[in-house]
Design brief:
It is built from 15 helices and twelve strands. It is an alpha/beta fold and 477 residues long. The strands form three sheets. It has an eight-stranded parallel beta barrel, surrounded by four helices. Strands 6-8 form a two-stranded parallel sheet. Strands 11-12 form a two-stranded antiparallel ribbon. The longest helix has 25 residues. Belongs to the glycosyl hydrolase 1 family. Keywords: Glycosidase, Hydrolase. It holds the Pfam family Glyco_hydro_1.
């Protein structure tokens, strides 16, 4: 560790997910996933959280932007060359389970899918970019939803174990950094993408998460058998929680929300056991999770090497009815409007200092290296006739967050290993299925209706981030 700045081997890079940029949803032997049947537009979020997501593709009623994504499946070499020009040290990507096992439970892996990811990984390594692979990023095969009811069914543990073993044995000798489930704690929000369940009960939500904890631990066990040098991480979304005021009832409510949302899943994967507050909650609510001693041993004996998290916003909490008229628009985690913060075009409250608080909170609690696997500003970018995009708003957002990261390292002693801003190249939004919600350093000529030639263009932030990486963040104050 260095208290003078980011460590010399700091992993600067960018993050994406297969279902949001690859496209080619029905090519190369790939099966359908949850993402493939999720329509674009603002109705996507309502369908995702209401449990009414149709489990079929209906092109007469909906559009599906991620079916072609940004055509990374065919253009990955071009895109990776641009990442290399920026100086990426790592690229966080995911593997689509359904490219490897089209139905999720097939007996034989799809060689065409394996060969595709072999080529992508080799292309990254050719440019001296370390892949960071997420094994499951909101892409459960659709067949496992229809036939097994999603992650509440324990049979998915063995299907995932086989999938994880297949890709770890194939790629584990040349890929060091791995993560198991993306934003696993969003399953607590009844997120269809996370646990692949329609209208689950609270008990089914916790059963689904338990099954994922077991599956994640088995993947970690396999990784160490394949290559002891592999670094396996867990991944959750973190929202710094503030009590709206000093009223003790709001402070207590904030503490409870913080424990169950920000800590619960990480406690299982980093510490390896169910925390007492969760067991007390289950008892109080009459929740019975089917867990065996063998499963608990697997969780206990296969904890992760590092902890990664996404950070986009914080949340102010109040149980006072007088505050409920000031709901925070766009905040996934609930809460009320924070009068001290501004919000993005999509209503996400912007809180750079909250990231420093998060880093201190998590490192103080877990004591393992931290990896910021997602952070960024979703905004409308408007190019001129020459595709010039002066996205100073994005530069300002990222610069403020990196500054707080640097303070956490230099002043607070946090061991931070990586930073991969989300959507380093424009891609289809997971929450709304839109292209207009852009995060990237690279503009892709494509609109929400699929119009555009998909040409790639550097934004102003491209050269700015290149400079940040080349100086290892030294210019950030």
């Amino acid at each position: 560790m260095s208290f003078k700045g980011f460590r010399e081997d700091f992993l600067w890079g960018g993050a994406t997910a297969a279902n949001q940029l690859e496209g080619a949803y029905n090519e190369g032997g790939k099966g359908l996933t949850l993402a493939d049947i999720s329509p674009g537009g603002k109705q996507r979020m309502n369908l995702m959280f209401s449990g009414d997501m149709p489990l079929e593709i209906d092109e007469s009623k909906y559009v599906y932007p991620n079916h072609k994504g940004i055509d990374y499946y065919h253009r990955y070499k071009e895109d990776i060359a641009m990442f290399a020009e920026m100086g990426f040290k790592t690229f966080r990507m995911s593997i689509s389970w359904a490219r490897i096992f089209p139905n999720g439970n097939d007996t034989v892996a799809n060689e065409e899918g394996l060969a595709f990811y072999d080529s992508v990984i080799d292309e990254l390594l050719k440019h001296n970019i370390e892949p960071t692979i997420t094994i499951s990023h909101y892409e459960t095969p659709l067949h496992l939803v229809k036939e097994y009811g999603g992650w509440k069914n324990k049979e998915l543990i063995s299907f995932f174990e086989k999938y994880a073993r297949t890709i770890l044995e194939r790629f584990g000798k040349k890929v060091t950094y791995w993560m198991t489930f993306n934003e696993i704690n969003t399953g607590l929000m009844n997120n269809f993408f996370s646990t692949a369940m329609q209208k689950p009960t609270e008990e089914e939500i916790y059963q689904g998460l338990h099954n994922q904890f077991v599956a994640s631990s088995l993947a970690t066990k396999i990784a160490r058998e394949v290559n002891p040098n592999i670094q396996m991480g867990c991944m959750s979304v973190y929202a710094t929680m503030y009590a709206y005021d000093s009223d003790p009832v709001n402070v207590q409510a904030t503490q409870e929300k913080n424990r169950m949302f920000n800590y619960f899943c990480n406690d299982l994967q980093v510490r390896g056991e169910y925390p007492s507050y969760a067991l007390a909650y289950f008892d109080r609510k009459g929740i019975n999770v089917d867990m065996t001693e063998e499963e608990l041993a697997v969780i206990r004996e296969n904890t992760v090497d590092y902890m990664s998290f996404s950070y986009y916003m914080s949340a102010a909490m109040s149980v006072n009815p007088a505050h409920q008229d000031e709901k925070s628009q766009g905040n996934f985690f609930g809460g009320v409007k924070n009068p001290f913060l501004k919000a993005s075009d999509w209503g996400w409250e912007i809180d750079p200092i909250g990231l420093r608080i998060a880093l201190n909170d998590l490192y103080g609690r877990y004591g393992v290296p931290l990896y910021i696997s997602e952070n960024g500003l979703g905004a409308v970018d408007t190019p001129d006739e020459n595709y010039v995009i002066n996205d100073d708003y994005r530069i300002d957002y990222l610069e403020q967050h990196i500054s707080e990261m640097k303070k956490a390292v230099m002043l607070d002693g946090v061991d931070l290993m990586a930073y991969t801003p989300w959507g380093c190249i424009d891609l289809v939004s997971a929450s709304t299925g839109e292209m207009s919600k852009r995060y990237g350093f690279i503009y892709v000529d494509l609109d929400d209706n699929g119009n555009g030639d998909m040409s790639r263009h550097k934004k102003k932030s491209f050269d700015w981030y290149k400079e940040v990486i080349s100086t290892n963040g030294e210019e950030i104050k």
